[in-house]
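pasting for ref
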Amino acid sequence: MIIEVAPGIKFIRAQSAGFLFCHCLLIDSEIRAVIDTGAGENAFAPIEPSRIDMVINTHYHPDHTAGNHLFPNARVLVHRLEYPPLVDKEARIYYAGAFRLEKFKQPEQKHREKVRDTKPIPARDFRVDGFIADGDVIDFGHTRATVLHAPGHTPGHVAFYFEREGIVFGSDIDLVNFGPWYGDHLSNIDDFEASIRRIIDLKPRIYCCSHRKPIRENIEEKLLTYLGRIQEAEDRIKQHLTEPVTLDGLVGHNIFYKHYNYAYNEFWERNMIEKHLERMLKKNSIMMIDGDRYVLKR
């Protein structure tokens, strides 16, 4: 399904819900552009992919880049910080933190429930033709968009502000009930919070993102609720720090994931808990004892 959110700005709904797909944006103007390519081949068929001039990837994750190959005549643009994992397997491993899986071996994943029958998108190397940066204004013809560097989810994650129309496309600042996702090795909680606040300050009239339908009402309230999920997660972690506990001892309490029913949920949960522990240590609200156990400061 394609939803026109403003003249020449169209929201392409993903052909399927869930992790493997994302909603995308079509700018149907003198320059025909697609922001992200994870909606699925069927979803893109009506827009004639061969006639798309420009593809912009908001970040490197496969649910946002898997369809790049569908646009053979498009120039591909990304933020410089997303270039390495798009073009190099070793960089993808580093950004995602997959090299750390050795610390979290299969026998230790005792909390894992039945894993869903999923078919992950195979990782690919992509062509990149140019770069975008914070503050760049892209002129598509009848409309223009300002690039917003919005890190946290990934280092080079970007959003787009169509000022005349009052539209923001926030990509994976996605307002899902789960809250912000920062399970990659190079994700950053503080950056994520700042990026959300930046979008709040723009006071968008319409907010589009990668995993929800376009939002036209109570946008600031929804963004603030989404931002608050970070502190809620930190508070849940603190509840388990009244006595000294290791990082591995915190995994399994469903602090982020209600179910460990995907192959990497437990690994990502561990990563996100660790980021909160590091942040709380910096804020001096917890302390480490014996080199591997964390406890609240009295």
